[in-house]
Write a structure and sequence with these properties.
single chain; 383 residues; alpha+beta; 6-stranded antiparallel sheet; globular
């Protein structure tokens, strides 16, 4: 008995689809884990701004290099910094500098961090009052929330949903198709009003290309409004805080951190890379005998970056370490503070980006609705 090639081909196709589904699910899981890790770091950084501080000392400071198991993998360099601090008579040892991490692909970046916290240096340690063994030397976040990671997760989940839906719709269509009869039969006669072919009613312009454009519109309709809502949330928050900060009380503070952070980023799809220099600034201030730390310069503009190191250094000249500064703080929440009160151009730019995303999403929705109305008018099912 010979194997049916149609059945064999169908089995191979199903196996391929199954393997592809496993691969996509694996990458989706990695993206979700990365997004959750980024959110955990961001949340921890925000909470650390409210932590109390104590004096500590650097026990050790060195750079450790992990070359990996393969020569094809770029080595990773970690600034291994350990420090000792005391809370309520108990001694603790910490190793975290900040929630941004201290492992880099560039050795110079790890060296810079290790030199900044040399052995024997007296430092201020910020610790979690609930669990004092959790601590950092630099509270706050070096970047905003992981919006890109969450958008990537949303794209993957949407693609999985569309793929599963397409697979099951196709499977139901195959099951509902009846097998051809072996007995020849004359075709049933059509009524006079149905003698014209479907092609006479259906425009010839509907093609696979239009189906793909329809799917693209669906993706745009889903993603851009979501991105717009997220961006608008941060933009509105920056506008409200900026407007209210004009009437906040002030207190004298001092710049405690002022350095250039060198960021090395690879360009997607190429072997090239780009280098960006970011000015990192942090300041301390005391209210009612309690010391606070903040790194926000102005609402909507938390950092200054440039491809030229000289520009970042020039920006830092405004805020050298140890310089007295005027701090505007929220009387309801003294952890919330800025050096530049009022609405900034950065907040307006964030709002403009959010509105642009919403407009693109609305335009995609209108185009998709009109496209499907035309399909319904000609009796064409939506893909």
């Amino acid at each position: 008995m010979m194997d049916n090639p149609q059945v064999k081909k169908s089995g191979i196709k199903k196996a391929g689809i199954g393997c592809l589904g496993i691969v996509v699910f694996f990458f989706a899981l990695i993206a979700i884990m990365a997004a959750l890790d980024g959110w955990s770091r961001y949340k921890g950084g925000k909470e650390s701004l409210k932590w109390p501080s104590t004096e500590g000392v650097i026990l050790s400071s060195e750079v450790k290099t992990d070359r990996g198991k393969s020569d094809d993998v770029d080595p990773k360099h970690t600034a291994a910094i350990a420090y000792l601090y005391t809370v309520e008579g108990y001694e603790y040892t910490g190793e975290r500098v900040s929630f941004a991490g201290q492992t880099f692909l560039k050795k110079s970046k790890a060296d810079s961090l290790a030199r900044r916290y040399g052995k024997g240096l007296r430092v201020k340690v910020y610790y979690d009052p609930k669990t004092p063994h959790v601590s950092v030397l630099e509270p706050g976040n070096s970047s905003g929330p992981p919006i890109i990671s969450f958008l990537l997760v949303a794209i993957i989940i949407f693609a999985l949903f569309r793929g599963i839906r397409f697979f099951y719709r196709k499977r139901r269509a195959v099951k509902s198709t009846s097998f051809p009869s072996f007995t020849p039969q004359a075709p049933a006669s059509k009524p006079a009003y149905q003698t014209g072919s479907a092609a006479a009613i259906t425009p010839s312009g509907v093609s696979d290309g239009k189906k793909k454009s329809d799917r693209t519109l669906v993706i745009f309709t889903f993603l851009f409004p979501v991105a717009g809502i997220v961006v608008l949330y941060f933009g509105v928050n920056a506008l409200i805080n900026g407007y209210e900060s004009r009437n906040w009380p002030t207190v004298q503070g001092q710049i405690s951190n002022s350095y250039v952070d060198r960021q090395h980023k690879s360009r997607p799809g190429t072997t090239g890379s780009s280098i960006r220099y970011v000015a990192r600034i942090g300041y301390e201030y005391t209210i009612n005998g309690k010391t606070y730390y903040c790194d926000t310069i102005g609402f909507g503009k938390s950092e200054y970056g440039s491809q030229k190191r000289s520009k970042a250094l020039k920006y830092l000249e405004q805020y050298p370490k140890g310089k007295p500064v005027t701090v505007y703080y929220d009387p309801a929440d003294p952890h919330n503070a800025v050096l530049k009160a009022g609405i900034t151009g950065g907040a307006m730019l964030i709002m403009a980006m959010g509105l642009l995303f919403m407009i693109v999403g609305a335009a995609s929705f209108i185009a998709l609705r009109n496209h499907r109305r035309r399909q319904s008018a000609y009796g064409q099912p939506s893909p």
